[in-house]
From TrEMBL:
SUPFAM superfamilies: Metallo-dependent phosphatases. This is Phosphoesterase. Gene3D superfamilies: 3.60.21.10. It holds the Pfam family Metallophos. Residues 1-226 form the Calcineurin-like phosphoesterase domain. It comes from the Bacteria. It comes from Virgibacillus subterraneus.
Length: 267
């Protein structure tokens, strides 16, 4: 069984910047390569309604591939992020709806997740991270994402849901998916305060702890716009973002960048 993996498509931004139809390139790739499943681990657009419409369109254009999705921080930029989360659940392949059984052995378990400052450098306090402003730059989620609870309570909500599913399927081979980073190893520490401060907003150790506890075989995430594909803690790690044109791309054309970025894994 073949699984295609991509995250951080940022369709709205990349379409404007490259004047290319990002989704039709993606849909052409899927219908040509025909993976059984295609997993998009968050950050499709800055609006739940736009993300939902693009997912529905993609699934319609690629009926032979099951499109699976978890939301990123950008997909829930709305006055009320709980409403945005619920809008996105209308997409049947949203892993927030429940566990997907690929076959008798393998299941996919995931949801977007959030961050709890557990990857933050120790030089700052929890209230600094809560404010999210450093050198006059405010982390965009602080302006555009609106949860009712604190960031760590949001993570608590996700870990509760994920651990319930993981426990239930603990005897199966598990592919776990979040948008946010599960291990500090995949957060870049540059020794530049203006960069390192924002590492607090990259993910949570709790997701990695759950993956370790339940012996997850493959872990797919995104959010950090840097690509990783390696073995870690006995699991296959796949972080496969498209990222922003032009600075995070290696090719000038959207077609080349997208087709070279997509990772195909097999189970
Ligand atoms: Fe992103
Ligand atoms: Fe993100």
């Amino acid at each position: 069984m073949k699984l295609g993996v991509l995250s951080d498509i940022h369709e709205d931004f990349n379409r404007k910047e490259t004047q290319s139809n990002i989704m039709s390139i993606l849909s052409k790739w899927i219908t040509t390569k025909r993976p059984n499943v295609f997993i998009i681990s968050g950050d499709i657009t800055d609006s739940s309604k736009k993300t939902l419409a693009l997912l529905e369109q993609l699934q319609k254009e690629c009926p032979d591939t099951t499109i699976l999705f978890v939301h990123g921080n950008h997909d829930i930029y709305e006055e009320n992020s709980v409403n945005a989360y619920e809008t996105l659940l209308q997409f049947p392949g949203n892993l927030g709806n429940g566990v997907i059984e690929l076959n008798d052995d393998w299941v996919v378990i995931g949801d977007g997740g959030w961050y709890d400052y557990s990857f933050g450098v120790p030089d700052y306090s929890k209230s600094d991270f809560k404010k999210g402003t450093f050198n006059n730059f405010t982390w965009p989620d602080k302006l555009y994402a609106n949860w009712a609870e604190s960031d760590s309570d949001v993570v608590g909500r996700y870990t509760l849901k994920l651990s319930y599913w993981l426990e239930k399927y603990r005897d199966r081979n598990i592919v776990m998916v979040t948008h946010f980073v599960p291990y500090a190893k995949y957060v870049e520490y540059k020794d530049e305060p203006g960069w390192d401060f924002f590492n607090s907003m990259m993910g949570s150790k709790k997701f990695g702890q759950l993956a370790d506890k339940y012996n997850v075989k493959k872990y797919i995430f995104g959010h950090v716009h840097k690509r990783y594909h390696e073995q870690h803690n006995g699991m296959e790690i796949i972080c496969n973002p498209l990222g922003y044109y032009p600075y995070e791309w290696t090719h000038e054309s959207a077609e080349e960048e997208i087709t070279s970025a997509i990772k195909m894994i097999e189970i």
